[in-house]
Amino acid sequence: MTAAAHTAFAHLLAPRRALFNAAGAAALAVAFWGGSAQAQDQPQLNLQRMELTAGMHRIDAQVAATPQERQTGLMHRKEMPQHEGMLFVFEQPAQQCFWMKNTLLPLTAAFVDDDGTIVNLADMKPQTLDSHCSAKPVRYVLEMNQGWFAKKGIKAGARLGGAVFSRK
After folding, report:
1. Domains (ranges, CATH) in the chain?
2. What is the DSSP letter of 92?
3. What angle do CA 135, 140, 142 make, to 5 degrees?
4. Residue 22, SS3?
5. Residue 4 confidence (pLDDT)
6. What is the per-residue pLDDT for 41?
7. What is the 8-class DSSP label of residue 120?
8. Helix (H, G, I), strand (E, B), or coil: what is residue 101?
9. Strand runs (DSSP E) across the chain, as ranges?
């Protein structure tokens, strides 16, 4: 779950906390997340896919476009092929912050501008609540296995290709 989603959920509960007992809060959590706790314990493997490029390198990216898909992200995945990643797509540019709760793989997040330019990269350790944020408002975040960008020589300022990115 992103820190933003966690914060949004906390803000939903804060003014209403006095109105809910533990059962009421649990029911709200199920309604907010749109599923049961069991569904949250499974990796999402069947999301829509999109081909992206980073220079001459091809990326097979799962697309997390809904709040539920973004919240779950790569949680509970035990492995991911090197050429695969997950592209998080947000409705509008904002500072995006990610954490690694329930995420078993070490990942690198590329915070990406509307035109595909990588704004900044962040290496993230598995199963931590450390927040990793974009250096400026972005609409896209691409998570890859940790070290993938470094091994390919891809740094902040590089441009990703793909139909999702508008050209300015």
Report:
1. 1-168 (2.60.120.1140)
2. E
3. 95
4. helix
5. 47
6. 80
7. E
8. coil
9. 49-54, 57-64, 84-94, 97-98, 107-112, 118-124, 132-133, 138-145, 160-161
d(CA 40, CA 77): 12
Distance CA 101, CA 103 (A): 5
Rounded to the nearest angstrom, the gap between the alpha carbon of residue 135 and the centroid of all alpha carbons in its chain is 16
d(CA 33, CA 9): 10
CA dist 99 and 85 (Å) reads 16
Is residue 33 left, alpha or beta, with left meaning phi > 0 and alpha meaning psi from -120 to 50?
Answer: alpha
Beta partners for residue 120, in sequence order = 111
What average pLDDT does this structure show over 126-139? Answer: 97
Spatial separation of the C-alpha atoms in residues 42 and 46, rounded to whole Å: 12
83: DSSP letter = T
The answer, yes or no, to whether residue 24 has pLDDT greater than 50, is no
**What is d(CA 84, CA 77) in angstroms, rounded to the nearest whole number?**
12
* Rounded mean pLDDT, 3-14: 41
